């Protein structure tokens, strides 16, 4: 009798442990419902350079949505440096969503959605796609800064004899 009770308790404990181990991390609702056709514009910010630009082009908006749509959700809380990039997605109905991105360097691409717990992991392809979108205007802005610096150089011309 005692062996039967122990057997039943052990079986029950194994079933409970098996159930806990197979619990799938479900992403909060909302991210997978982001529809590019409902987006008015996206403001992309590069926090390090304190620069931002808006994208209104449907193709660029679709690239953004596609890049984040396949991200893997993780319930864990991030304890890392401040994000280098941010995005504010403004919907046609007036709603908005805020995102923070860690996509620089060789590290895994990560992002969070303001107001949600957990974070999302990006594929390497999605990370590169987002970095391209965030830096799309950076080359133009950087060359403009160089031009201004070059034009402001007031050193006297070299004299040749």
From TrEMBL:
Signal peptide: 1-18
Source organism: Paenibacillus spongiae
Keyword Membrane: no
Keywords recorded for this protein, A-Z: Signal
Residue ranges of domain YhfM-like in the record: 39-135
Transmembrane regions listed in the UniProt entry: none
Name of a matching Pfam family: YhfM
InterPro entries to which the protein is assigned, alphabetical: YhfM-like_dom
Lineage: Bacteria, Bacillati, Bacillota, Bacilli, Bacillales
Superkingdom in the source lineage: Bacteria
Protein name (record): YhfM-like domain-containing protein
């Amino acid at each position: 009798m005692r062996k039967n009770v122990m057997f039943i308790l052990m079986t029950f404990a194994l079933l409970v442990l098996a159930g806990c181990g197979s619990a799938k991390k479900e992403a909060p609702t909302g991210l997978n419902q982001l529809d590019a056709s409902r987006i008015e514009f996206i403001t992309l910010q590069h926090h390090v350079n304190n620069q931002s630009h808006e994208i209104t082009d449907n193709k660029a908006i679709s690239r953004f949505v596609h890049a984040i749509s396949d991200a893997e959700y993780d319930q864990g809380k991030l304890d890392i440096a401040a994000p280098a990039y941010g995005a504010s997605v403004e919907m046609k109905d007036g709603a908005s969503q805020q995102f923070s991105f860690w996509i620089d360097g060789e590290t895994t691409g990560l992002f969070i959605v303001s107001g949600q717990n957990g974070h999302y992991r990006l594929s390497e392809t999605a990370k590169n796609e987002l970095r391209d979108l965030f830096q799309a205007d950076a080359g133009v802005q950087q060359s403009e800064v160089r031009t201004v610096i070059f034009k402001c150089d007031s050193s006297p011309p070299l004299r040749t004899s």
